[in-house]
Amino acid sequence: MSYPEARYLDEAGESSGVFRPASAGPDLVIGGTTVRYLGTGASTNGQFGLYRWDMGPKPSGPAAHFHRTISESFFVLSGTVRLFDGRSWTDATAGDFLYVPEGGVHSFRNESGEPASMLLLFAPGAPREAYFEELAEIASSGRRLTDEEWTDVYLRHDQYMV
Question: Tell me: the pLDDT tens digits for 51-78?
């Protein structure tokens, strides 16, 4: 393993960091879950997407699925999150981590009855915000999608349900 090709070629560094204070509110609410866009694919030049996922006490989370173009990682900050690695479910708690490469079946759920928080990392940085925002709109509007409509949503966002 070696370092990748240089992407920055100037002789001197530059001041280009982006700070997001902890006091910044959520960017999105999906049911009882608040989402903070810590680093989007757009803001990281496509290198990764990092999101804070704060789930309320009611059960929530996607069914088992995989992605063709992105890996996904989970780091539990607090509470208990059930993580599925394609083989089995694990009750993960603060400090636990799961990495899932492209094509890896996975899922997560908060079934603990208590709030739980985790970080989601996608690499490279795909536009996952559009997917999250579409899910939020569907949830808040109460719309019921047909199987064909769900298939279209998933295909547009590299989400393959199993």
Answer: 999 999 999 999 999 999 999 999 999 9
* pLDDT tens digits, one per residue of 131-158: 999 999 999 999 999 999 999 999 999 9
Q: How many helical (H) and strand (E) elements, i.e. helices and strands, does the chain have?
A: 2, 11
CA distance 135 to 124: 21
DSSP conformational letter for 63 = P
Q: CATH number for the domain including 137?
A: 2.60.120.10
**Between β-strands 80-84 and 116-123, what pairing exists: parallel, antiparallel or unpaired?**
unpaired
Residue 12 lies inside a defined structural domain of this protein: no
* Cα Rg of the chain, angstroms: 17
